[in-house]
Amino acid sequence: MLMTLPDDDTLYEALLARDAAYDGTAFVGVSSTGIFCRLTCPARKPKRENCNFYSNVSDCIHAGFRPCKRCHPVAPAAQNDPAITALLAALDSDPARRWFEADIIRMGYDPSTIRRSFKRHFGMTFLDMARQRRLANGFTALETGKVIDAQLEAGFDSPAAFRTAFAKLLGTPPNSFKTDAMLRAAHIPTPLGDMIAVCDKRALHLLEFADRKALPTELARLRKLTKGDIGLGRFDTTDQVETELAAFFAGESATFAVPLVLHGTPFTRQVWNALRQIPAGETRSYGALAQKIHAPTASRAVARANGANQIALIIPCHRVIGADGSLTGYGGGLWRKQRLIDLEKTYAQRNLK
């Protein structure tokens, strides 16, 4: 059963008691401060009349509240959810497994509750995540093998099902990719999820999380620019991207030296270059970014350019937040944005670049 929140008076009592039973399923927006928190937040408790309760982070943000810096309500509470932890561990131990709701039930969990929890924290269900993990295995196999081998590696019994799933991920079926192309797409696993990198021999053209909804559109745009000259596989550039991403997530370096090709208008490229000048561990508002490029009235255009970025992390659009301190949108998901900001705080604390 999906969890239905009790009345506000009960939630206020839970807030006063710091009741962990509602962690991740209920949040409080405090009108006197403009901040929203977990009910377990250690901060001084607000007055009842200043409290508004919400069932998810998205509603808090849409209501105009910004996340608390003490309890980090946008950070994935999944880390504290034993059911999610157990399912993620099971997925990591056997990424090629085909999961069904019956498997979740056998592990002792209610599928509806699991579905809601994963959607809240990751923007996708556990079954979607498992399917994507299998597809990532097939993607890697496609880089060096045949479609049928990739299909089997991904655990798809049906060639049609594999082609459909692959086309949903990348916007085109696997047999449409050239074998000796100027640009090549490769799968790169990271602690925040699978990423797709598109490189040529000298530079990186695209780097996106595989579950970003805009990925098929971005790849279609690249195919149009290159007249379909995109294949699967790797260049030395791809290996450089993967090595630099590994160092970034390990907390060793926030510097990316791989050359980039920026597919955008002169204005969007100007915004993207300004993004790269924001030090790791710092954030900027859209207005501040507009001031930086000497276009103080162009905050909305800056926001659009920020959203059009197709080289995630390396062009750090995650470092742009609302003027009120709210996270605002992020194509890779707000939970990833919070994780990236938290990770980069360690760079700032150690004065690393």
From TrEMBL:
Cofactor note text: Binds 1 zinc ion per subunit.
Xref: InterPro entries: Ada-like_dom_sf, Ada_DNA_repair_Zn-bd, Bifunct_regulatory_prot_Ada, HTH_AraC, MethylDNA_cys_MeTrfase_AS, MethylDNA_cys_MeTrfase_DNA-bd, MethylDNA_cys_MeTrfase_DNAb, MGMT_N_sf
Cofactor(s) the protein requires to work: Zn(2+)
Residue positions of the active site: C37 (nucleophile), C317 (nucleophile)
Keyword set, alphabetical order: Activator, DNA damage, DNA repair, Metal-binding, Methyltransferase, Transferase, Zinc
Origin superkingdom: Bacteria
A biological process term (GO) from this entry: methylation
EC numbers: 2.1.1.63
Record-linked PROSITE patterns: HTH_ARAC_FAMILY_2 (PS01124), MGMT (PS00374)
GO MF term set: DNA-binding transcription factor activity; methylated-DNA-[protein]-cysteine S-methyltransferase activity; sequence-specific DNA binding; zinc ion binding
Reaction(s) catalysed (UniProt annotation): a 6-O-methyl-2'-deoxyguanosine in DNA + L-cysteinyl-[protein] = S-methyl-L-cysteinyl-[protein] + a 2'-deoxyguanosine in DNA; a 4-O-methyl-thymidine in DNA + L-cysteinyl-[protein] = a thymidine in DNA + S-methyl-L-cysteinyl-[protein]
Protein residues bound to Zn(2+): C37, C41, C68, C71
Domain HTH araC/xylS-type: 107-180
PANTHER family membership: METHYLATED-DNA--PROTEIN-CYSTEINE METHYLTRANSFERASE (PTHR10815)
Family statement: Belongs to the MGMT family.
NCBIfam families named among the record's database cross-references: ogt
This protein's name: methylated-DNA--[protein]-cysteine S-methyltransferase
Taxonomic source organism: Yoonia maritima
